[in-house]
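Q: Here's a chain of 747 amino acids. Please give me its 3D structure as tokens.
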Amino acid sequence: MRNVINLNRKWAFTKQVNAIPTAIDNKWDFVNVPHCWNAIDGQDGDNDYFRGTGYYAKTLNKTTLPAADRYYLEINGANSSADVYINGKKLAHHDGGYSTWRVDITEELGVNSLLVIAVDNSANETVYPQMADFTFYGGLYRDVNLICVSESHFDLDYYGGPGIAVTPTVEGSNASVKVETFVTNTKMGQTIRYTVYDAQENVVAQTETADTTATFTLENVHLWNGRKDPYLYCCEAELLEDGKVLDNVCTRFGCRTFEIHPDNGFILNGKEYPLRGVSRHQDRWGLGNALLPEHHEEDIDLICEMGATTIRLAHYQHDQYFYDLCDEKGLVIWAEIPYISKHMSTGRENTISQMKELITQNYNHPSIVVWGLSNEISIGGSDNDLLENHRILNDLCHEMDKTRLTTIAAVSMCKMDDPYLQIPDVVSYNHYFGWYGGDTDMNGPWFDKFHAMHPNIPIGCSEYGCEALNWHTSDPRQGDYTEEYQAYYHEELIKQLFTRKYMWATHVWNMFDFGADARNEGGENGQNHKGLVTMDRKYKKDSFYAYKAWLSDEPFVHLCGKRYVDRVEDVTKVTVYSNQKSVELFANGVSLGVKEAADHFFYFDVPNAGETKLVAVSGELRDESLIRKVDTFNEKYRLVEEGAVLNWFDIEAPEGYLSLNDKMGDVLSTVKGKLLFMGMFAKMMGGKDGKMQAAGFEVNAEMMTMMNGFTVLRLFTLMGGMMDVKFTKEQLLDINAKLNKIKKPKK
């Protein structure tokens, strides 16, 4: 029988050696796996986290292990490349930091064998990802096991797969279930016993055969039906010789049908099933990628509490335990490889191997419905090599898995007629209108235009969001990082995206704040703060409850702005989110009225004098908060950007005249404003053939539309990062003085 020995405890670890060690000395520390060496420096900003090689070492003694013919080392996650050595001899190399891989160490395993795993997350030109808005944490950050098996065993060598593949096909009220097994070193007389169990562990089908395939019919099959009823069967395969079990594997599976329709969206088991949910990164504050089961469980519980029906597991293969949880909870999943942002002509083989691992290891999960080919890879345009790479991946997915579809996440600047969009089965776009330029009301019409142009291509929104920290205002505006603007943004996006049934899926970017060490913004460096929940999972931002109001059946009432206590205005706006029909708000015990809201967003004007206790009530449900009248704005609520040349509140903005705080589109709509800026832009963004460029790609109409939505100050600040164009305070104030002489355009 197979024995699996967990090797997580007590590894020697060091980054202080220059050659493959053959002994452990005082340069080593001791750590437990999962372990991540960028858990601190990968989350503090400045993009200066350690990227290099770390060494993990452990002594193995064969005499203390279960007796077996073969011993396989199983590594479930080592980012991003790794080599395995025993007693200084190299046994294997692996590229790809997010998948399972195994090494047969039988021949080198002895009485006291020094096992060394050298893990490397340094920059290179062959292994994805190399450019992306998240930290590429280094480490041996998932479980490490030793698998002890007989000479004949279910396959452990092929792309980290489980050795068994189950393909259910629903046929009316029944299901035909094909089971394939992959056996290494088979011998005459050996047989395989296949057993299918229902969710209560009752045997519902069984057969014994010498064949590596078997087919069962499940009558009156119980369907896997998403969040409503995520029913799972289990299939076990046992390798037998003379009645003795040599090896066994088992996998859960679900029986379901799905369709992605260009007009009606996602259809599960013949019924429309809107996919509305979130994207998820796997890291944690202070842990990096080194998560434990309880962290995955907390994440899935929060996502389910919000009422989501889908998760985009970005931008790489996630832990098998999390896919298992998605199966159990009924979340519909988009799974993808880290082919992201920067196409590397030298990285094609790595995209192929990572896709083979993703599909082989995850084929049996009923939660997964699409394989993601790439993310924002066309940000610099689509050349022939990029297109060929995608066609190869697309064909590979359909060859390996005839039951699922392929998709991509295209960046806003990708033109609607780009041939890249014609390759996968379905398409989604990453749009940030209302955050990175543009206005929130541009999102819905953009998708309507795409849908009209491509009526046969299912279209979704794979990313949208904006950043929020513990900053607050009664006058939220794009780019202010306040919780109030994030709430407003998501209110608007919910109303636009959720009411367009043709959209096959929508995924908020992101469920949780996550590590992005290159970021220095928002007042807390090293993170992307677009999460609906903070990185430590301790605080649900108001926008979390906006989604809960639309998606969850759990009755609740939520008073927004609990962290925004001190307010200067005499009458302040207070928002309540609820999935109930009506809400009543009390201020110091006095009712301010009962309101109904078809969009689940209830707005109240509240007199602000002294200290006011607010209570929102709907039936037995209630929520409380406090506001307090102050004479001057509490500066603790306002982001003062560290190192900023100029903050928006320091800018003179006379009424009726333009300033740096106005949107570029408004400035360019005036003759004088256009004259002021067009020459300046052409000089700063000059490209080949006179075409304007930014960050290495052409400024097309889509990008210009986004730029028009930025305030002049924010656009200039972003230019500093995109094109290394720096403005002094004096230069900005001089531009502002010129703008102050130009009348605002009439609305």
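Q: Can you summarize the key feature?
A: Residues 648-739 form one domain.
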